[in-house]
Design a protein that fits this description.
The chain has 403 residues and is an alpha+beta fold. The chain has helices at 19-28, 45-55, 102-114, 131-141, 172-178, 181-188, 201-208, 212-222, 238-271, 278-316, 322-325, 328-352, 364-401; strands spanning 7-10, 35-40, 59-66, 71-77, 86-88, 93-96, 121-126, 145-152, 157-163. Helix 12 (328-352) runs antiparallel to helix 13.
C-alpha cells in the first residue's frame, strides 16, 4: 500500500527470499528528500547495516514505532548530494567522480545506473581506472550493461556505461554455449538451457519466480572457479562436434533407451496400483523412444552430412547450392521442434515423478529406474544444448555466407 507521499513496505506479507530485494528496489527509486516506511514484526536493524554497506551513508533511519509487536522505520534519502555530482548532456549523464565525497562515489554511480532505461547511458569521469565499479556492477546487477572506454588516462578516464536492450541480452543457451559450467547453475534452478535456451536469464527467472540477482551472481562465480575438466565445445570444429554428438550422445540413447523402456514397463506393472503416476511415465518413455530414434536417424543421414558439406565449402572456398542440398536453416526448424517435444515429455516425467523422488516402498528396480531417468535427462540436456545452441546456429551463420 502507498500513501500520497510515502511507500509503506509491509515486510511480513513478502516471501522471505524477496524481502530485502523488495526494500532495496524501492529504496533505489527514491529521490533526495523522499522516504519509505518499513513495517515489520521485529527490529530490521541488520537491513540498516546492509544499506549502509551497499548504498553508503545517504539516508536517515528514523524509528516511528519500536515494538513490542510492530516496528515502523522511516528511511529518507538525504538532501546532501551536491548539485554538480552529475551533468545531463542531453544524451548521456556524466558523473564527475572526483567532485564527490568518497562515501558517495559508488552509491551515486549505482543510483544513476538504476534510473537508466534500456539503451540509455551514463559516463563515468574519473582520475583513475574505475574497474572495481565494473566488477561491482556485474556482481550486483548482472550482465545487463556494456562498458566502453572513451578515454584511458594518463590523467582522466571516461567510460560509457550503457544498459543493454532486450535484443542485446544473452540467452541462457548462448551463456551455456560459451561456458558449460554455467549450465550447472541453470540445472540447479530448473532453468531449461537446451529446448528453452532462447530466453534471457531475466525472462526465465521472471516466469519461474526465481531471484534473478542470485542466479546472476552464481553465474559470475563460475568464472572464478578453476575446473580443468571443463570442455569448451564452443571452440570445436563443427564437423568434429557433429561426430562427437553421434558417437557420444546418440550412442548413449541407443544403449540406454531400451533398458529405460524395459524398466518403465516392469515397474508400472508391479507398482502401478499403488503409484498410478508410473502409468503416464511409462507412456511418456515410449513417446520419447519413438521421437528420438527417428530424429537421430534423420540427423545422421541428412542433417549432419550437410553440416560437413557446409564446413567443407567454407574451408575450401567452393560454391555451395542451397537449391541442390536443401536449406540447412529450414531443416533445423523441424529438428528443434522435435527437441522441444522430447524436452516437454521429460518435463512431464519429472512432474509425475516429483523430481525423481524415490518412494519408501520402492524396490531395487523402481529405484534404479528413477536414477536412470534422471541420468538420461541430464545427458539429453547436454545433447540438445550442443545442437540447439552451438552446432545449429553456427552452421546457419556459415551457410548465410556461402554463395
Amino acid at each position: 500500500m502507498q500513501t500520497a507521499q510515502e511507500i509503506i513496505i509491509n515486510v511480513p506479507e513478502i516471501e522471505p527470499r524477496l524481502k530485502h530485494a523488495t526494500i532495496f528496489e524501492a529504496f533505489d527509486k527514491l529521490e533526495a528528500g523522499e522516504s519509505l516506511i518499513i513495517h515489520n514484526d521485529h527490529d530490521p536493524k541488520p537491513l540498516y547495516y546492509q544499506l549502509i554497506a551497499q548504498r553508503g551513508d545517504i539516508f536517515t533511519w528514523q524509528y516511528l514505532q519500536q515494538g513490542p509487536q510492530w516496528w515502523d522505520i522511516r528511511v529518507t534519502i538525504k538532501n546532501t548530494l551536491p548539485n554538480h555530482q552529475s551533468v545531463d548532456t542531453g544524451k548521456d549523464i556524466v558523473i564527475n567522480v572526483p567532485s564527490l565525497e568518497p562515501r558517495l562515489k559508488h552509491p551515486t554511480i549505482f543510483q544513476t545506473f538504476d534510473k537508466l532505461g534500456k539503451g540509455e547511458s551514463l559516463i563515468i569521469h574519473n582520475d583513475h581506472d574505475p574497474k572495481p565499479v565494473y566488477y561491482q556492477l556485474l556482481s550486483e546487477r548482472g550482465d545487463i550493461f556494456t562498458w566502453q572506454y572513451l578515454q584511458q588516462g594518463p590523467q582522466w578516464w571516461d567510460i560509457r556505461v550503457t544498459r543493454k536492450t532486450d535484443a542485446e541480452a544473452e540467452t541462457v543457451g548462448q551463456i551455456a554455449a560459451k561456458d558449460l559450467r554455467k549450465a550447472e547453475v541453470f540445472k540447479k534452478y530448473g532453468i531449461d538451457f537446451c529446448c528453452g535456451g532462447k530466453k534471457t536469464v531475466r525472462e526465465v527467472c521472471a516466469e519461474k519466480g526465481i531471484d534473478v540477482t542470485k542466479v546472476e551472481q552464481e553465474l559470475q562465480q563460475t568464472e572464478q572457479s578453476v575446473t580443468g575438466g571443463n570442455t569448451n565445445f564452443n571452440d570445436w570444429n563443427l564437423d568434429f562436434l557433429a561426430d562427437y554428438i553421434v558417437n557420444t550422445h546418440h550412442q548413449y540413447v541407443r544403449k540406454y533407451l531400451p533398458e529405460l523402456r524395459g524398466y518403465a514397463l516392469k515397474v508400472a506393472r508391479v507398482h502401478g496400483g499403488h503409484h498410478p503416476e508410473l502409468l503416464p511415465i511409462q507412456q511418456l518413455v515410449e513417446e520419447v523412444n519413438d521421437e528420438l530414434l527417428d530424429h537421430m536417424t534423420s540427423e545422421e543421414q541428412v542433417l549432419f552430412p550437410l553440416v560437413k558439406k557446409i564446413v567443407q565449402a567454407k574451408n575450401s572456398n567452393t560454391a555451395y547450392s542451397k537449391e541442390q542440398n536443401g536449406s540447412f536453416a529450414t531443416m533445423v526448424q523441424q529438428m528443434e521442434q522435435e527437441h522441444d517435444s522430447v524436452g516437454r515429455a521429460f518435463d512431464e516425467i519429472r512432474k509425475h515423478s516429483n523430481n525423481f523422488a524415490i518412494p519408501e516402498d520402492a524396490c531395487a528396480s523402481y529405484t534404479l529406474f528413477y536414477k536412470m531417468l534422471e541420468e538420461f535427462e541430464n545427458d539429453l540436456h547436454t545433447h540438445i544444448h550442443l545442437e540447439n545452441n552451438i552446432l545449429f546456429p553456427k552452421t546457419i551463420t556459415i551457410e548465410k555466407t556461402l554463395g
